[in-house]
Amino acid sequence: MADADAGGEGAQTCAVRRGRESETADAKSKRQARTVAEPVMDAGWSIEYSVHKLTPATMEDARVCFQNELDEEMTRLGVERKERKGFLVENLLGVPTWQPAPRWESILKGDWASYELDLSLYPNQEVNQVRKQLYNKLVLWAGAMRDALKKRGYWCNTACPITGSCMFGDRTAHVYNELTGLTMMLNYDSIPIGCCGIVLHPTWGRCPPTC
């Protein structure tokens, strides 16, 4: 966890949700059973990802966000409407992604692996620049993943970290709740920032964006 600054202009105290410490043994066992693949770093992209089965509540959140494409996909697969929610609980997987946040000067040198910048600091010109570049990299990675999985017969889409809407295809009126999804899948600590919140990576703290 990244510690909050002590003193200075804009210093504030934030309540931290102690995810890993407060998790019961039963909840931890169920979460681990839903984990298909533990976090791994795609070194070529400097993007970390893991794979998880979703709880019914998180599945429903994803379903309404990606409903237009999911309905088309399940029609293609011949899944009857009355069977679709159960089908998604069994087959829809969540893939949370993380990126380390280098300083702008590090990116200019081609270093995407350093984690040096607190992206929760707003307004800040450097944070804005780095966030934009990390977002562009995520879009490229997600597009490559979507194309590769499509060739193998799988459907894939991504929740946009800026809007919460689907990144590809027609949007619905619903957005995906990243904070709930991330804490459900990974149980990392989180803190409130403004009207929203951020999840803290166990190694990088506040330095990575969450997607």
Question: What would your notes on this structure say?
Answer:
It is a single chain. The protein has helices spanning 19-22, 25-34, 56-65, 67-77, 84-91, 104-108, 125-151, 178-186, and strands spanning 35-42, 47-53, 93-94, 97-98, 190-193, 196-199. It has 211 residues and is of the alpha+beta class. The protein has one domain (19-199). The strands form 2 sheets. Strands 1, 2, 3 and 4 form a 4-stranded antiparallel sheet that branches. A hairpin with a 4-residue loop joins strand 1 (35-42) and strand 2. The protein is globular, with a radius of gyration of 18 Å. The chain starts with 18 loop residues before the first helix and ends in a 12-residue tail after the last strand. The relative contact order is 0.19. The model is unreliable at 1-16 (pLDDT under 50).
How many distinct helices?
A: 8
Helix content: 25-40%
User: Into which percentage range does the β-strand content fall?
Assistant: 5-15%
Give the topology string: H per helix, E per strand.
HHEEHHHEEHHHEE
- Average pLDDT taken over every residue: 86
Distance from first to last alpha carbon: 18 Å
How many domains is the backbone divided into?
1
What structural class do the secondary elements suggest? alpha+beta
User: Biggest sheet, in brief?
Assistant: 4 strands, antiparallel
Overall spatial form: globular
Give the uncertain stretches in residue-range form: 1-16
Structure summary, number of beta strands:
6
Radius of gyration: 18 Å
